[in-house]
């Protein structure tokens, strides 16, 4: 599994839409879509925020 798919699965497990996640992170919905489709990746500060939201460690997120 890749980071994009992991982010998508975590978001869906929490029943959060791409639109809702974009508002939480103050980015566009298209940005969320690009991350989930591995067209781009979040920066390190955003990765840390995502880990806080999903209550997982950065290691768990990146190492799968």
Category by helix and strand content: mainly alpha
Distance between the termini: 7 Å
How much of the residues is beta strand, in percent?
under 5%
Q: Secondary-structure element sequence?
A: HHHHH
> Which whole number gives the mean pLDDT?
95
* Largest sheet composition: none
The rounded Rg comes to 10 Å
Residues in helices, as a percent range:
55-70%
List the uncertain runs.
none
Counting DSSP H or I runs of 4 or more residues, the number of helices is 5
**What is the 3D shape?**
globular
Say how many strands there are: 0
Task: Please write out the topology.
Blueprint: H1 3-13, H2 18-25, H3 29-36, H4 44-54, H5 58-63
What would your notes on this structure say?
- α2 (18-25) crosses α3.
- The mean pLDDT is 95.
- Helices cover 69% and strands 0% of the residues.
- The chain is mainly alpha-helical and 64 residues long.
- The protein starts with a helix and ends with a helix.
- The radius of gyration is 10 Å and the shape is globular.
- The chain has helices at 3-13, 18-25, 29-36, 44-54, 58-63.
């Amino acid at each position: 599994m890749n980071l994009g798919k992991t982010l998508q699965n975590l978001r869906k497990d929490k029943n959060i839409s791409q639109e809702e996640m974009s508002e939480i992170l103050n980015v566009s919905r298209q940005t969320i879509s690009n991350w989930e489709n591995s067209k781009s990746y979040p920066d390190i500060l955003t990765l840390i925020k995502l880990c806080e939201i999903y209550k997982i460690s950065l290691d768990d997120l990146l190492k799968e």
